[in-house]
Amino acid sequence: MSQGRRSRLPGWHGGWPGGRNGKERDIDATILLRSEVAPARPRGVGRAAVAIALLVTCGCIQPVGPARTSESYRAKATTTAEAGISAAESASLVIDGADEERLLPPYTAVLLSELEDDAGGAASTFSGIQPPSAEADRVRADLLDRMADLQDALAELRIDARRGDLEALADVRPALRDAVDQLEAFVEEQG
């Protein structure tokens, strides 16, 4: 920016007659010219970004606590699977936004990275819970295998987005859908 644009604006007193406490105060002109410098963004990008951000932050919260019975352990496993499903469905929305050219590659990469972290965090939290029985051991192994498939699909999405290859995201959609189907079947099995 040239020095002329950064000059002080004479006559501006900070919004108070006579300035604050009776002293004149000038402001930097760059504050007022910011709208000239900021690039225009396509219409609807802000709404899509807010919607996706809300899904990411609200849908993937994992409760933590001990499991003293197989029933409570299965309930925690179901909650973990639901957190994985939420992350996958949010990733599907991100893919849709990228397909419609409503999301830029860097933002898409950040969203997908956060979704991958959410799914990984849910799986990690669950894996830290002590299974109370041999039956719970089987539930644990089954769920963690299914969550690993989801994490692999999310990692592939993140890698493609970081490379700026948003067209490749649609190629991962079948693996993502398969992971969701497996997790939904798990939830149904746990009753």
What's this model, at a glance?
With 191 residues, the chain is an all-alpha fold.
What do these coordinates show?
It is a single chain. This protein is an all-alpha fold and 191 residues long. It contains six helices and no strands. Helix 4 runs antiparallel to helix 5. The model is unreliable at 1-9, 11-16 and 24-38 (pLDDT under 50).
Key descriptive features of the protein:
191 residues; disordered N terminus; mainly alpha; 6 helices
Strand content: under 5%
What is the distance, rounded to the nearest whole angstrom, between the alpha carbons of the first and last residues? 63 Å
Fraction of residues in helix: 55-70%
Output the helix-strand order: HHHHHH
Please tell me what the overall shape is.
elongated
Can you give the mean pLDDT? Answer: 80
Largest sheet: none
**Which stretches of 5+ consecutive residues score pLDDT under 50?**
1-9, 11-16, 24-38
Number of strands: 0
List strands and helices in order, with pairings.
Blueprint: H1 29-37, H2 45-59, H3 70-99, H4 105-127, H5 134-162, H6 169-190
Helix pairs in contact: 2-3, 3-4, 3-5, 3-6, 4-5, 5-6
